[in-house]
Amino acid sequence: MRDIQSLFIKNILNGTRSNLKECGTAFAASNIALCKYWGKRAVALNLPVNSSLSISLGHLGTHTEIRQGNQDRVMLNGSEMAVNEPFVVRTLEFLDGFRPLLGNTYFEVRTQNNIPTAAGLASSASGFAALVMALNNWAGWELDGQRLSMLARLGSGSAARSIFDGFVQWNAGTNPDGSDSFAEPMAQIWPEFRIGILKISEAQKPIGSREGMNRTVATSELYKSWPAQAEADLATLRTAIDTQDFTTLGKTAEHNALSMHATMMAAWPPLIYLQPDTLEQIHTVQRVRADGLEVYLTIDAGPNIKLLFLEKTQATVAAAFPDVEIIQPFG
Amino acid sequence: MRDIQSLFIKNILNGTRSNLKECGTAFAASNIALCKYWGKRAVALNLPVNSSLSISLGHLGTHTEIRQGNQDRVMLNGSEMAVNEPFVVRTLEFLDGFRPLLGNTYFEVRTQNNIPTAAGLASSASGFAALVMALNNWAGWELDGQRLSMLARLGSGSAARSIFDGFVQWNAGTNPDGSDSFAEPMAQIWPEFRIGILKISEAQKPIGSREGMNRTVATSELYKSWPAQAEADLATLRTAIDTQDFTTLGKTAEHNALSMHATMMAAWPPLIYLQPDTLEQIHTVQRVRADGLEVYLTIDAGPNIKLLFLEKTQATVAAAFPDVEIIQPFG
Lengths: 331, 331
Fold this sequence. Notes:
Strand content of chain A: 15-25%
CATH class of the largest domain in chain A: Alpha Beta
CATH architecture of the largest domain in chain A: 2-Layer Sandwich
Distance between the termini of chain A: 40 Å
Largest interface: A-B, 34 and 34 residues
Helix content of chain A: 25-40%
Oligomer: homodimer
Shape of chain A: globular
Order of helices and strands of chain A: HEEEEEEHEHHEEEHHHHEEHE
Mean pLDDT of chain A: 94
Low-confidence stretches of chain A: none
Number of domains of chain A: 2
Structural class of chain A: alpha+beta
Number of helices of chain A: 9
Largest sheet of chain A: 7 strands, mixed
């Protein structure tokens, strides 16, 4: 698997010479998928079964700095992490694929997340995107966003989308070599768009996303219908974004997210990331919507809820969900 | 729709003469599906998309008495019900199909459920089965179980299975006229089999099963994969019952039930019968099973949980779930 990734990286760089500066830096925004990525068609290259579409979180994300070191070191939010921490292991495994292209150097990585840690937002997307962009900056490769997204994808699938801001589509592609599976930004700006975070739990997920999606693909009969739904949802979402049709966007995103969770619930052993409090809030969203408040939800592979709404309902949403943390993706 | 049902009833009776006694009585046991019925291929005749398989609840069910009256009257558990009560409306609509065959008489129906009303167990299955059997007894038709199950099916799909005791299969059939969609008993006896009821809520379901399954079939993309899963699960369950392989039976029943709920969660608007406390108990079942206790669950279109286990673990199950109400289906 590492060999496959190393070869892929070499092909992407395609002979580009490295010209190391003192250090490389980059910022990448986190993103929330409106049409979810769930299921790999090839594990080694993180190639997805279905295309996905996300909205980035503007200034919320990861800032990363990388330079040569005397040994591999990873600092997260100002603290040096032990080399056996899963975060460090995953970061260094990823960087291993780049080492031969950078003179087999040691890496010193400083990562800073400005995503409120209490918000329960995944940081691997912005983390691997920022890392790849920092590498690109450090080595002077000047790769375009398409190539950067393919490299970020190797670290975490959803990181492919965090290379860009705003609405972003990650094309699943069909080539076995992964050369057509990359992200592309959409031009549309929607300043009134709001995202509300409802934190349910900060606990580590008992089953990670990778294992979760592999189990779903392997054991969930209902998953067989997922790719067709995701494809249809993505097309609907693109049109809704084009026409700023919030109702269609919200319905489609919520339907898509709950359908993804449904594919997991139908796996064996059952995979249920939703907690009792998640379900309580899902029922609340359905109730306030029935009362006329236009708010929708999406949920990643975890217990936390993201509300989707427009600026004009912000006060009402905040009243209905007192703990909500509101983000302006285009703010 | 009523005309279609009336014609179907006439065809089933096929000229059989009615010879009314003073009154007709019958008892039918409630049943719990291990492979769920979810989705109709034809609404008017209650023809299911998939075959299903259940276990009856022994002495827990409905006792019904029917006789001629001066007006239509329905007594439930000793109390006369108002004619506009949904229970009465549904009962009389069903009986309307039989009226022309019984001299256009008025009906006086006395129904007694000995299912603990607190248990949250559906009573429509045993209710319509007992009603059909009481009619058969009253009119002296001497119909066989196959025909009785087809008549009961018109009142409530799952009532087809409550005509028989023990493990029962309801064949979906393929004929548009409904003539091959009937229940059949399995011969196997499993005295060690136990069912545990975990009551979560007694509240009326906001969306009834009929509307729920119609919405699922119409809007849930994932539902398209349900019939294939149900067919496979049914075959697996039959073999597990034949060989008394409880592990396979339990896994398959739980997987089947959660997959059914998954098809609903993927409907639009989302259909989520599970309550926060249901989810809490689902997580508890997963946890105690990981600890080595062999207990599985099934959930009908509602919030309440039915545990499946064997006699040998009864004390441990009762300790892990203090509120459980234990039923011996073969007791």
